[in-house]
Every structure is written in C-alpha cells, then in structure tokens.
Amino acid sequence: ATMTTTVQASPRTYVVKKGDTLGAIAQREVGSVRSMADIIKLNAGAIKDADDIYVGMTIKLPPRGAGKTGT
C-alpha cells in the first residue's frame, strides 16, 4: 500500500504531558503565548478555556510561528 501524507491539510498535534499548561504549550510548540486563543479555536468543542486540558489529551496546534503578527 502506498502512503501519501499531505502536510498542509493536517494540523500538527500535541499530547498534553504532566505539568503542561496551555500557555506553555503555545510558547514552546507554536512560538507565542498569544497563540493560546488559536489553539482553543482549533480545538473548539474539546477545549473551552486555557484550563480545559488534561494529561494524555491530544490537541491540534496551529503552524509554528502563528500568532506572532496581528492580534
């Protein structure tokens, strides 16, 4: 079987680890604490606010560098 992956179509994901906060994940994985709002939007239905994450949860992340410019 041939496996094709389209990078643009699938957002990056991250598995929440013990001690993680949404702000820390945003800073480390995306490059800006401001991208917390983008992470919450991307995970609408799964995350209501910054405290709504748990260990082992898989969340979608915006591309690295998102949130640095603009809002």
Average pLDDT metric: 86
Q: How is the main sheet built?
A: 2 strands, antiparallel
Q: Would you tell me the structural class of the helices and strands?
A: alpha+beta
Number of strands: 2
Shape: globular
How much of the polypeptide forms β-strand, as a percent range?
5-15%
Strand order, sheet with most strands: 1-2
Cα-atom Rg, whole angstroms?
13 Å
Q: Low-confidence runs (pLDDT<50, min 5 residues)?
A: none
- Helix percent reads 10-25%
Helix segment count? Answer: 2
- The N- to C-terminal Cα distance equals 44 Å
Q: Could you state the order of secondary-structure elements as H and E? A: EHHE
What secondary-structure arrangement, pairings included, does this model have?
Elements: E1 12-15, H1 22-30, H2 36-42, E2 58-61
Antiparallel strand pairs: 1-2
At a glance:
This protein is an alpha+beta fold and 71 residues long. Helices cover 23% and strands 11% of the residues.
Report on the structure:
The chain has 71 residues and is an alpha+beta fold. It contains 2 helices and 2 strands.
Summarize this structure as a short list of keywords or feature phrases.
71 residues; two-stranded antiparallel ribbon; 2 helices
